[in-house]
Amino acid sequence: MTSGEQAKPLLLANVRPMAFRQDTVHKTTDILVGADGKISAIGPSLAAPADTIRVDGKGGWISPGWVDLHVHIWHGGTDISIRPSECGAERGVTTLVDAGSAGEANFHGFREYIIEPAKERIKAFLNLGSIGLVACNRVAELRDIRDIDLDRILECYAENSEHIVGIKVRASHVITGSWGVTPVKLGKKIAKILKIPMMVHVGEPPALYDEVLEILGPGDVVTHCFNGKAGSSIMEDEDLFNLAERCASEGVRLDIGHGGASFSFKVAEAAIARGLLPHSISTDLHGHSMNFPVWDLATTMSKLLSVGMPFDKVVEAVTHAPAEVIKLDMQDRLSVGQRADFTIFDLVDSDLEATDSNGDVSQLTQLFEPRYAVIGSEAITASRYIPRARRLVRHSHGYSWR
Ligand SMILES: [Zn+2]
Fold this sequence. Notes:
The chain is of the alpha/beta class. Helices cover about 25% and strands about 30% of the residues. Zinc ion binds next to loops.
């Protein structure tokens, strides 16, 4: 809807609710959303006013709107970010969480040029380093203590507490050199002062994944949890696996954060087989990961499904789980009077080959296919991202590369 256009009621017909934690589960129904964006009726074969826009869900699933807990969307303010529209509603995602693209020095621009105009709800982890990801990995944001300004971080949070949901620290030697785990400790101190969680990226040591876990507490997030990097994989060190399992049971949230270098099918499959599931599934989408190998959230969800994560847990990991981290209310999302925030999607048979960050290939026999993102009275047509370089062709028995 463009500005000036009159909002109209929206009828979501023939949809099957799931993941609402209410009694309405798994029965096809209609949902009527008023022109004000709030749910006005729920039930089979609803009558709707004459000017209603009708969307036929064709028996597909409807869940709370998907949340991607780790993306990079400070487009124009960093060299690595994509636009919110490239990974948001058009991919079935209604809430995007930027993972530290902006630091205190440039958060005001991120708010004004990206957060405020976006159709999607945007929240952010504030980078501990003042400059954020301006020139990502070329000008690292955490080289030494001169890159952190505690007073300005506190000020920035005070001015932006409705947008900032936590502190982000990238703890790997590409960024911190040999500074080790100290920035993680400083990040934890600030997060404690502000009473918000910290998200830590684990990668090439130092810091060691083990050391990071020892610093994190309940509510904090470790992203790239199932990475396959030497010295940072939970499957090459039994002590680290046991530590990750214990921390997860105590409330540390394991987040996928697929990205260009940080998701391994082998690690994920082995961890899930041993009962260690990720808390949240996120993409770490940015300019260097979107076209290869990540594509989008739906494909990332399909990858987790392919390595043994149950369907309902996968949906939970993009709805209630990330919502808990950012304190987004998911109660009674499917009730009259609530603002509409949904994803309509199908689970379809497939023979798509997908690649992880280590170059390993897996066949996805089932694919999450987003159909619509519903934000208030607007239903935005959604689909999975089709990568540019190689062409994915859909045919009667699935997909293939051409
Ligand atoms: Zn990232």
